[in-house]
Amino acid sequence: MIRGRFRRCGRVPGTFTPEDQAVVDQFRAMLTAVRNPQPWTPGHAQDVAVRIGPFVERAHPRPGDDHDPEMIAVALVHPDTPHAAAYLHGRQLGYTEGGWLRCETTAILGVWQPGYAMLTHAAAGLPLPDNVGMDPVHYALYIEARKRDDSHDGFTLLRLGPYTQTRHAQQDHDRLIAALEGRETTLVPGHRISTRYAPFDVSDHQKFADPYEADAVAFLDAAVAGGVRMTVPTP
């Protein structure tokens, strides 16, 4: 994959042209990045280098969803981001089509360094594969209890997700709304219960109930009956 990119273009044997030197510098930067990866730390909002098959790609973590040591949400971006030319080239190669993806932190080589750029699909002129080995980040339902004194204080009563199909999330949303009708202000004293859509928070995946394991209304009833209250304030 790499050998063909380093053919010398000098006109005189034994001499280096500026083009030759640029290629050598890129190669040295790549070796430095591979041999001395910069450790990645969760929660620092840093672009990371992730392995996609035999390639290495630049991945941008979703703000606020990169603090879990096992799973974060990322979007694959062109290595020369944010330049305009990189955006156009990225569209041609499928970089802008992937959306947010679930990335296991074991696939992260370290913090992104420019030296990795030579190892990307973009450098090889290849489109990203349809399957990059990471599942999409889907949406979730949040059932929240907010105080009725207009202070917006409250807590998250239940998290359901991820939903692999939007229609399933819509169906559960409608069923929960129907189940709450007339009981929004009585289930939790002093609070009003509501349901909303939001992106599935990969970093907090352990806090979510799998909507495909049981009925959404049954989950709600169990949460209320058991007094399950997340201590994290609602946003």
Characterize the structure shown:
The chain is α+β, with helices and mostly antiparallel strands and 235 residues long. It is built from five helices and eight strands. The protein is elongated and about 85 Å long.
Helical coverage, percent range = 10-25%
Computed CA radius of gyration, to the nearest angstrom: 24 Å
Secondary-structure-based class equals: alpha+beta
What pattern of helices and strands is seen along the backbone? HEEEHEEHEEHEH
What does the main sheet amount to? 5 strands, antiparallel
CA-CA gap between termini: 47 Å
- The rough form would be described as elongated
Average pLDDT, rounded to a whole number, is 85
Strand order of the largest sheet: 4-3-2-1-5
Give the strand content. Answer: 15-25%
State the helix count.
5
Number of strands: 8
Low-pLDDT regions: 1-10, 228-235
Question: What is the compact description of this entry?
Answer:
This protein is 25% helix and 22% strand. With 235 residues, the protein is of the alpha+beta class.
Descriptive key words:
alpha+beta; 5 helices; about 20% strand; 5-stranded antiparallel sheet; disordered N terminus; elongated; 3-stranded antiparallel sheet; about 240 residues
